[in-house]
Amino acid sequence: MNRPIVDARGLHKHFGSLHVLKGVDLTVAERELVFVIGPSGSGKSTLLRCLNRLEEPSSGSVVVDGIDMLDPRTDINHARQRIGMVFQSFNLYPHMTALGNVTLALRKVAGKSRAQAEALGRAALERVGLADRAGDTPGQLSGGQQQRVAIARSIALEPRVMLFDEPTSALDPELVGSVLEVMRSLRESGMTMIVVSHEMGFARNAADRVVFMDEGAIVEAGPPAAIFESPAHERTRTFIGQIQRH
Amino acid sequence: MRGDWARFTDTFLNAKVMHKYLPDILSGVVVTIELAFLIVVTGIAAGLALALLRSLAIRPLNWLIVVIVDLFRSLPPLVVIVLIYFGLPSVGLSPSGFVSTWLSLAFVLMAFSEEIFWAGITSVDRGQWEAARSTGLSFGQTLMSVVLPQAFRLTIPPLTNRTIAITKGTALGTVVAVTEILGQASSAMSNSYNPSPLIMGAAAYLVLFFPVVVAARWVETKFAWKR
């Protein structure tokens, strides 16, 4: 196994009286694609959001690419550039063009000049197949195109790992394929990815490891074939049975 | 019939009186414009500053902001003017009528515009903050580049309305001897025993504010949010 890019240990998260993460350990190696599945409310999204500290873990440790994310001395804004994140609801900036969305952090955080940022931004849009839509605003793009711009916004910063929080859940079925296609090509380029999603077909084909979470803890993890065909736990079996019936 | 009309024009549209007091009314217009300009600039700037401070989510500070804002939203502007003009001398400060009116209306505009800006900021989806922060933008950069541009579009219609309403309150300055339009018009009326200057004053307000109202309507349609 390559050296870990993400090393999270003993993560706990409380929201008031709600105990959402109950001691989660997750280690992800370089170039690995890890799929996180589980029923709604199992803590998958919270786990993802703790990794880039959009959510402050109540306790535990998170090290990403050698940087201690929870150390108060860590420059969190600098560290976050190495961790791309894609959201269920795209969250593109509606007052900017696609290119504006992709170049904002390049200019403001990575310190690129406008010309440099635009060159990198266009290259990122090219990678998601939207070079010709650089001047469009999010309102002029379909959901699938918006999500691909959101992916371009992240990869333009050349992150070491990408987090996907249900990237296709808000999309019409016919638009899902284009987003998965982009994710597959990212995977082929060697990107380390952690994906929270119910796209089981994609998980089977592309994932190195599937992690099943329930009630704030990891129940089991393993290669997709093992988790899908012969899960060790009853809860995993029940969940997989439920989603495959749909 | 003819005589009635003559008496009407003699009373309300008396050319001689109007001619005599036109310079006074015009100097009142200048004072009103100065006052209005100062109120709009300082009031809106202070309101925006308070809204930005409030977005830092420092609890005791936010309570203080809410108390100040609610105070100035509750008090009638005239009461604030009178309190500053007649109240501050007792603590050794003697602001002029002009300064009292400016400060009072600026505080009132600050209070209302803070609420309008705050509503705009909070109406921007949380996902916008999260997306920007996840790419490494700081809190301040996210506020300036992502949140405020979206918030401003939502604030423009209520802000222009409120600004016009409060700026018209400059006429209240006449109570504390500010020589703005209404003040000039009413002293001209008492000197000439003729209400024609009041008509001129009203006309001056129209000339001044009507274009502003029309411009506000234009700005509102121009900034209508297209998603």
Compact summary:
Chain A is of the alpha/beta class and 246 residues long.
Task: Explain how this protein is built.
The complex is a heterodimer of chains A (246) and B (227). Chain A is of the alpha/beta class and 246 residues long. Chain A has a domain at 94-158. Helix content of chain A is 37%, strand content 26%. Chain A has helices at 44-51, 76-80, 98-108, 114-127, 143-155, 173-188, 200-206, 224-229, 234-245, and strands at residues 4-15, 18-29, 33-37, 59-64, 67-68, 83-86, 161-165, 192-196, 209-214, 217-222. Chain A has a 6-stranded mixed β-sheet, with helices on both faces. Chain A has a 4-stranded antiparallel β-sheet with strand order 2-1-4-5, with helices on one face. In chain A, a hairpin with a 2-residue loop joins strand 4 and strand 5 (67-68). The radius of gyration of chain A is 18 Å and the shape is globular. In chain B, helix 2 (15-55) packs parallel to helix 9 (196-222), helix 6 (126-134) runs antiparallel to helix 7 and helix 7 packs antiparallel against helix 9 (196-222). Chain B is built from 9 helices and no strands. Chain B has 227 residues and is an all-alpha fold. Chain B has one domain: MetI-like fold. The A-B interface holds A 52, 54, 77-81, 83-85, 87, 89, 91-95, 104-105, 108-110, 139, 150, 153-154, 157 and B 125, 127-128, 130-138, 141, 145-146, 149-150, 153, 226-227.
Low-confidence stretches of chain A: none
| Arithmetic mean of pLDDT of chain B | 91
Helix content of chain B: over 70%
CATH topology of chain B: MetI-like fold
Query: What's the tally of helices of chain B?
Result: 9
Shape type of chain A: globular
Keywords:
heterodimer; A: 246 residues; 9 helices; B: 227 residues; mainly alpha; MetI-like fold; 81% helix
Question: How would you summarize the topology of this molecule?
Answer:
The complex is a heterodimer of chains A (246) and B (227).
Chain A: E1 4-15, E2 18-29, E3 33-37, H1 44-51, E4 59-64, E5 67-68, H2 76-80, E6 83-86, H3 98-108, H4 114-127, H5 143-155, E7 161-165, H6 173-188, E8 192-196, H7 200-206, E9 209-214, E10 217-222, H8 224-229, H9 234-245
Parallel strand pairs in A: 3-8, 3-9, 6-7, 7-8
Antiparallel strand pairs in A: 1-2, 1-4, 4-5, 9-10
Helix pairs in contact in A: 3-4, 3-5, 4-5, 5-6
Chain B: H1 2-12, H2 15-55, H3 59-74, H4 77-87, H5 97-123, H6 126-134, H7 139-168, H8 181-192, H9 196-222
Helix pairs in contact in B: 2-5, 2-8, 2-9, 3-5, 4-5, 5-7, 6-7, 7-9, 8-9
